[in-house]
Amino acid sequence: MTEWIGTANHGFASLAMEELRRMIQGLKFTQLIAGETFRMEVPLNREAMVDLLRTNEPIFLRHIQAIDRILPIQGNADDLQALSELVRHARARCASGSTAIHLRKVDGSRYPYSAADTKTVLEAVIMELGGETTMQAPEQILSVFAGTDELYVGWGTPTEQLSDWPGGAVRFQREEGQISRAKFKLLEAERAFNLHFETFRDALDIGAAPGGWTQLLLERGLRVTSIDPAELHPKLDGYPRLTALKKNASDVTFAPGSFDLLVCDMSWSPMQMAKLVLEKTDALREGAAAVITIKLMHKKPLQTIRDVVAKLETAFELRKAKQLFHNRDEMTIYMAKR
Ligand SMILES: C[S@@+](CC[C@H](N)C(=O)[O-])C[C@H]1O[C@@H](n2cnc3c(N)ncnc32)[C@H](O)[C@@H]1O
């Protein structure tokens, strides 16, 4: 038996738990943050659990942290002392590769320190042991989850935890001139699906306005054809590589093989969206990539996803499906044209 903390986007914990229940018999859950974070007992050893999640990554489980140790919270400096001792006992681990410290805290936790203070102290201990600390691309993460009265501490790699951000909460800096927050969704998709948009040439952006996704693809050097009956932001005026069609996507046709990338963020009925995307498949080259958000507007989101994916699979091969941190009532799929 092993214990873990699972995290999903706010309001989606029940779906993350349902997906896990379908994969593993005999799970026991306890809520840590309503609708978002839960503790679970899993009747599998660590390797089996990590392996299972690696080969069947769930859509709604955003992050997972092992609970290797539980420390009672004293509410004073003893807590930092206890965490420092725990790190000192992991000398060999600290020396084996760069470490990041992640701290998350529930509202009302008796643990009195901020993430920054905890990091400063624990990083000093790691360095004293001859280890290396980092924020970017760590080889391992020491995760501390401060519940109300207990600290749950676990070690893991970014791959095991499904993310290298605390709780999978991926943060991007808002840039000057950024048109919409929607841009973060595509940036996160690029990382989550290990895509490198600069390696594509011709993109079709369906449901493009106000233009955050189009902006990102133009910045990556692609030629972009955007379709939306709504106006694109004036900041996009004058991009020579942009063709903006102010139309409904169902009224537009293209020559076969015009694009090697399709992105679609229509926030529309999922089945209608799938129909519309399928109408555009001839315009895509063989093997073209597609990044598509699926709005979860119905009572049975897992069924909606299955239905939409099955429909799209008539022309595409599903590579990965994930609810990204920047997705609200939606999730994102990455497919390749057959
Ligand atoms: C969530 S917004 C897209 C945001 C965009 N990805 C960005 O980064 O700024 C959804 C857009 O889909 C567009 N849309 C909805 N149905 C459409 C259709 N049938 N054809 C083209 N665009 C459509 C809407 O006009 C709206 O601008």
Automatic annotation (TrEMBL):
The keyword Methyltransferase applies. Pfam families: FtsJ. CDD domains: AdoMet_MTases. GO terms for molecular function: methyltransferase activity. GO terms for biological process: methylation. InterPro entries: RNA_MeTrfase_FtsJ_dom, SAM-dependent_MTases_sf. Keywords: Methyltransferase, Transferase. Residues 180-268 form the Ribosomal RNA methyltransferase FtsJ domain. This is SAM-dependent methyltransferase. It comes from Paenibacillus artemisiicola.
